[in-house]
UniProtKB/TrEMBL annotation:
Keywords: ATP-binding, Membrane, Nucleotide-binding, Repeat, Transmembrane, Transmembrane helix, Transport. PANTHER family: ATP-BINDING CASSETTE SUB-FAMILY C, MULTIDRUG RESISTANCE-ASSOCIATED PROTEIN LETHAL(2)03659. It is found in: Membrane. InterPro entries: AAA+_ATPase (IPR003593), ABC1_TM_dom (IPR011527), ABC_transporter-like_ATP-bd (IPR003439), ABC_transporter-like_CS (IPR017871), ABC_transporter_C-like (IPR050173), ABCC_6TM_D2 (IPR044726). This is ABC transporter family protein. It is a multi-pass membrane protein. GO terms for molecular function: ABC-type transporter activity; ATP binding; ATP hydrolysis activity.
Length: 1251
């Protein structure tokens, strides 16, 4: 089960073996939704879980539905998506339309029955058989209406969700056919928004489409009944609303663009966790991007408020004009004609009020479908250059006339690979070498079909014979178990699996992991080291039994001993007979290969076997640089120690590692799920966000005026119709007409004012809670939050939940307040004009409603929480898959990914099924209970009342009572559901942040010396976990260069994390320039320290913005550092400092990204510099230049370097040796090596013996 699922006790698990609902029930049970009652009862007694619900039938599953839809889409590729959906789902729409037509006919029958009942009241000699017949007809019509309405509602929602899930799969399917590396038109944030926002709008499509057909039928029927078609145009209000739709359309489009920008920034921030170096950009995000988005939402909701005004005004104008024209034509406004029209108008009014909502839904859906269609029409991979696999051919792969680009603008300046001609025989071991940015990784990507070619030139030809396994330079790791990552959708084969584990050197890792290969890996492999991720990626490749292995520098992430084992035992022996292509910077590996290609500036400048290449001048120059680097180490008595950490170190330090892994083995937290009713504190907090009590008081006054105007209007029309029964004759016809029209305008005006006030207040509260969430997320502790919470869960709250607060919650508040006030006013008025005896059936009815409501609301609440929780895995899996598209396609596992994604959609879909069934059941039961009031009202009117006007008013109200109550409870349910979104957002405002307060005011500039002092310092990852640094004490003088050495898991990185206060100390302290850093303001501390990390941090934007994000340096200073960091060639070959960098730096090589990060660090000019193996993916020559630049430019800085390779600490003044979190040795290199009992000497000897 997914990590977002609920942890359950044994007693619950036993109960899950028996599913609560059986879908294959009798037609009678389906008709009355009897099958939903067990889950309602279960929800009332205890909390629900998704395991209690049956899986969807095969024909209902999203994957099967998508297969059918995809078939139609492939046939009609140029077809408009809207038309295709309507065509594919036509039979479902027709079925829904027919049932909705039955709803309409049963609704329209009630006003006619009211007309005949009022006519019956006029009769002196009453036939009680006829009275019984009227009562029976009303009950029958009401039952038909209830059954048809509940099933229509159920079907429309299920059909809508089916459309949504199918389109979600189609978007995923499209993602698996495009390259985010070469197709930069769409960012990950925009594509995520398609899944999270745009496809969600499709749920309302069936209901909106049917409404747009039904409402004109209602209007036509009304016009026929009124018999004044030539004088009355009841759709004038609709036309006015239609005029506002264009503006609404624009506002929705603008809002969506701004939402895309916000999501893209959110994705970048959360994907990089805590971007320490760019922390000052948070103000721009909160105050600019979000404000622009809110402005567009405000414009959009203003159009909505106008539509609300017209929705209320139109029926009142129609009714007033109908009565006025009817009277002017010489007719008498009698109750038997008036109240049926009022009944029809009440039905029409409800529809007209739904019309703007349906129209707006369709407009939003149209825009969303256009965005989706634009994405579906975007460029796909250029797979047409692949020839058919030739099993008889001797070559494993060939490239002919290979000219490849990363951008669609295929001009000569954008050419990445030039004149590539390669032929690799089956079973050969090939090495590809070259400098940083020379095109080595691009060559692999071209083989995988990720690059594009110029269709105006000769088309390249790629022949590939056999299946492919790909090990990327940046391994793609799923949020799944170790075993699932290795199997990657393939069936389990024990021998093959053991072989993959052994030859990827994962045996000891699995012994250390608490749950072995069933250990859950965090998102992006957060609880694994770089070497572990690389070896899991390699194990996946071995297990695939592929014939061709594309290996993009996987050995750079592992230590020397492991690297040699993998090279000799795995690549050479195990994979003998397989075709292997290895990208590497380590020239000492080349002698083991069969053939070598040397790439420079995108061209193959030299090729041949190892002996031939040794005679090549260019290769000799590169080899000399490599040998010089080795000899330099030997001359300083470090010989060929390339790595300080070996496999033996893992064994010796396994206790420390086991503690660390245990701390992280159950790393990902289960998404918190509230239980029971929403706490009153949540509602109080929401009101506190609104703050302005004066504003709330004015809103209450507006609501009271609106209610009073409704009551007066109803009494006024009763008075108007009573004058012809000689019961009153107080005013003229014109007075009645204008007063009634005025009252209708007052109702509409105050409905508009109410909507505007609610909208404006909701926007303010939404803005405030969003800012509070961002503030908490920005400063949330990395180890305790970002490493433990999946990105999809965070994105779900910042997209779906925030969207509910932006757009939906104010509509729910308005609807609930409207319907509740209507129930109160209508019932009070009914009692006033009839008899106080009506209180008894109303009391019984509301008592039943209360009981049913408690049962329903609890189930609805539980299902809503489950539904929201089940969304997070959908988004997590989607974003995870976007990051691994190349790997997924290389292993031909697109179908597996589609099925996994479909399963997550279906998990959510089955909860929606039960939620919708519960809602429909509630509608039916509520309607049946209302028959008590209907029967009493009819009986009272027929037997006791003598005033036809009062009788008409009572019958009209009684007929709409259950609808009003149902809409009230529905709006309350929707409000609760959106309050759950608020509750979830509120949780993220309570995230315990890092200690941000400034206790000590430091003198500027600080630090100016760079002295660092650890005093009895201890720290752990999280509370109640073992210490990872224990009583650490040492001092670093100003401008000293310190190399930090230790075995795997010793706590080296924890030192730098502690200096940055990503980890807060348990005891002791750290001083910088004699200032306790725990008392320094967090932003000041981190902005004063430069970090150079092993994993480069790249932002979307220009190279200039990446190098100097805060714009504190001149162009001359930037260019000087660019030259020193060997980036001048990159700048000259592209668009200078204005060269755009794609999302995540996808248009740069791994080495180029590291060089940019190094240049950024140099420009920052901090007094303290922390380096964590920042030159891992750089060739030998460039690394030498960078190391010299670092030593020269940071000569006046205090530098702490975590040592993975010996050449990175050769220049250091002192070496700090740490073991199991404790300081073991601290001194100069010569001093430690002269002490043969030192730990450093032991590590040194192990490396020499291994070599």
């Amino acid at each position: 089960m997914d990590s977002a699922s609920i942890t359950l006790d044994n007693q619950q698990i036993i109960g899950f073996k028996e599913k609560l609902i059986k879908r294959n029930t009798s037609w009678f049970k389906k008709l009355f939704f009897v099958q939903i009652y067990p889950i309602m009862e279960k929800a009332y007694r205890t909390e629900l879980d998704e395991n209690q619900m049956n899986e969807l039938e095969t024909t209902e599953q999203s994957y099967e539905r998508h297969q059918q839809f995809s078939y139609h889409l492939n046939i009609n590729k140029q077809c408009n998506l809207v038309k295709l959906i309507l065509k594919y789902y036509l039979k479902y729409f027709l079925k829904g339309f027919l049932i909705q037509l039955l709803v309409l006919l049963s609704q329209l029958a009630m006003p006619l029955l009211t007309k005949y009942i009022i006519g019956y009241i006029y009769e002196k000699n009453k036939d009680y058989y006829q009275a019984f017949l009227f009562i029976s007809l009303v009950i029958t019509v009401r039952i038909v209406n209830l059954l048809s309405m509940s099933h229509s509602r159920f079907m429309m929602k299920i059909y809508g969700y089916d459309i949504m899930s199918v389109m979600s799969l189609e978007i995923m399917n499209k993602c698996l056919k495009i390259s985010l590396l070469s197709n930069t038109d769409k960012s990950i944030g925009e594509i995520t928004n398609l899944i999270q926002v745009d496809v969600q709008r499709l749920i309302q499509v069936p209901n909106s489409v049917v409404n747009m057909i039904i409402i004109p039928i209602q209007l036509t029927y009304f016009r026929i009944i009124t018999l004044v078609d030539k004088l009355l145009r009841p759709n004038q209000g609709v036309k006015v609303k239609g005029q506002s739709s264009e503006g609404y359309n624009r506002s929705v489009l603008i809002n969506q663009i701004h939402k895309d920008q916000r999501i893209r920034i959110i994705f970048l921030k959360q994907n990089l966790q805590v971007v320490i170096e760019n922390i000052n950009t948070n103000h721009y995000y909160k105050q600019t991007i979000r404000e622009i988005e809110l402005e567009s939402i405000q414009d959009r909701l203003q159009y909505f408020s106008i539509n609300v005004f017209m929705g209320w005004l139109s029926p009142q104008v129609i009714l007033s004009l109908t009565f006025g024209l009817y009277v002017l034509l010489g007719n008498q406004l009698i109750p038997s004609k008036t109240f049926p029209i009022i009944g029809l108008l009440s039905i029409l009014a409800a529809s007209l009020q739904l019309l703007p909502i349906s129209l707006n839904d369709l407009l939003e859906t149209k825009l969303s479908l256009k965005r989706i269609q634009d994405f579906l029409n975007s460029d796909e991979l250029m797979n047409d250059l692949y020839c058919d696999y030739k099993k008889v051919a001797n070559s494993a792969l060939e490239i002919e006339q290979g000219n490849f680009y990363w951008k669609k603008e295929c001009n000569q300046e954008q050419l990445i690979l030039k004149n590539i001609n390669i032929k690799v025989e089956k079973g050969k071991f090939i090495a590809i070498i070259g400098d940083v940015g020379s095109g080595k990784s691009s060559l692999i990507q071209s083989l995988l079909g990720e690059m594009i070619y110029n269709m105006d030139d000769d088309k390249p030809i790629i022949n590939i014979t056999g299946s492919i396994a790909y090990v990327g330079q940046k391994p793609w790791i799923q949020n799944a178990t170790v075993q699932d990552n290795i199997l990657f959708g393939k069936p389990f084969e024990e021998n093959l699996y053991e072989q993959a584990i052994k030859y990827s050197c994962l045996t000891l890792d699995l012994e250390i992991l608490v749950h072995g290969d069933q250990t859950m890996i965090g998102e992006k492999g957060i609880n694994l080291s770089g070497g572990q991720k690389a070896r899991i990626s390699l194990a996946r490749a071995i297990y695939s039994k592929a014939e061709i292995f594309l290996l993009d520098d996987p050995l750079s992430a592992v230590d020397a001993q492991v690297g040699n084992f993998i090279l000799k035992d795995c690549f050479i022996n195990l994979l003998k007979g397989k075709t292997r292509i290895l990208i590497t910077h380590a020239l000492n590996y080349c002698k083991y290969t069969d053939y070598i290609y040397l790439i420079q500036k995108g061209e193959i400048i030299e090729e041949g076997d190892y002996q031939k290449m040794q005679n090549n001048i260019v290769y000799q120059e590169i080899e000399k640089k490599f040998e010089f680097d080795i000899k330099k180490q030997e001359n300083q008595e470090y010989k060929n120690i390339v790595q300080l950490v070996g496999q033996k170190e893992i064994e010796q330090n396994s206790d420390q590692i086991r503690d660390k892994i245990k701390n992280k083995s159950d790393l990902m937290t289960v998404e918190e799920r509230k239980k029971g009713e929403i706490d009153s504190e949540v509602y109080v907090k929401y009101l506190q966000y609104k703050k302005n009590l004066v504003y709330q008081s004015i809103l209450l006054i507006v609501m009271i005026i609106w209610i009073i105007s409704q009551i007066i209007a109803n009494l006024w029309v009763t008075e108007w119709t009573s004058r012809y029964a000689s019961l009153s004759d107080h005013y003229s016809e014109i007075t009645y007409f204008w007063v009634f029209l005025f009252l209708g305008f007052v109702q509409s005006l105050f409905a508009y004012i109410r909507a505007v006030m609610i909208v404006s207040q909701s926007i303010k509260s939404s803005s405030q809670i969003h800012n509070d969430m961002i503030n908490c997320l920005i400063f949330a502790p990395q180890c305790q939050f970002f490493e433990r919470v999946p990105l999809g869960r965070i994105m779900n709250r910042l997209t779906k939940d925030i969207n509910s607060l932006d757009v939906e919650i104010h509509i729910n508040i308005a609807q609930f307040s409207t319907k509740l006030s209507q129930i109160l006013s209508n019932n009070l008025l009914s009692i006033y004009v009839s008899t106080y005896l009506l209180i008894f059936p109303l009391t019984i009815f509301f008592y039943i409603c209360l009981k049913i409501q408690r049962l329903y609301m609890k189930a609805s609440r539980e299902l809503q929480r489950l539904e929201l929780i089940s969304r997070s895995p959908i988004l997590s899996y989607f974003t995870q898959s976007l990051m691994g598209l190349t790997t997924i396609r290389a292993f031909c596992q697109t179908d597996f990914v589609m099925k996994e994604f479909s399963q997550k959609l279906d998990n959510n879909k089955q909860i929606v099924y039960y939620s919708t069934a519960a809602s429909s059941w509630f509608l039916q039961v509520l309607g049946l209970a209302s028959l008590i009031v209907n029967t009493f009202a009819i009986a009272y009117c027929i037997l006791f009342t003598s005033n036809p006007s009062f009788a008409g008013l009572i019958l009209t109200f009684a007929a709409s009572l259950d609808r009003n109550v149902q809409q009230t409870v529905d709006s309350l349910s929707f409000l609760e559901n959106n309050m759950i979104s608020f509750e979830r957002c509120l949780e993220y405002t309570k995230i315990e942040s890092e200690n941000l307060a400034e206790i000590t005011t430091v003198k500027q500039p600080w630090p100016n010396q760079g002295r660092i002092k650890f005093i009895n310092y201890s720290v752990n990852y999280r509370n109640n976990l073992p210490l990872i640094l224990k009583n650490l004490s040492f001092s670093v003088n100003s401008k000293e260069k310190i190399g930090i050495v230790g075995r795997t898991g010793a706590g080296k990185s924890s030192i730098t994390l502690s200096i940055l206060r990503i980890l807060e100390g348990v005891s002791g302290l750290i001083e910088i320039d004699d200032v306790d850093i725990s008392k320094v303001q967090m932003q000041k501390l981190r902005s004063s320290i430069t970090t150079m990390l092993q994993d480069p941090v790249i932002f979307t934007g220009t190279i200039r913005q990446n190098l100097d994000p805060l714009e504190t340096c001149s162009d001359e200073e930037v260019m000087k550092v660019i030259e020193e960091c060997c980036l001048l060639q990159l700048i000259n070959e592209r668009n200078g400092l204005d060269t755009l960098i794609n999302e995540g730096g996808d248009n740069l090589s791994a080495g180029e990204k590291q060089l940019i990060c190094i240049a950024r660090a140099i420009l920052k000019k901090s007094q303290i510099v922390l380096i964590d193996e920042a030159t891992a993916n750089i060739d030998i020559e460039t690394e030498q230049k960078i190391q010299q630049a670092i030593q020269r430019l940071f000569k006046d800085c205090t530098v702490l370097t975590i040592a993975h390779r010996i050449n990175t600490i050769l220049h250091c003044d002192k070496i700090l040796v740490i073991s199991k979190g404790q300081l073991k040795e601290f001194g100069s290199i010569n001093e430690l090596l002269n002490n043969k009992s030192s730990l450093f000497y032991e590590i040194y000897q192990e490396a020499i013996n291994h070599k």
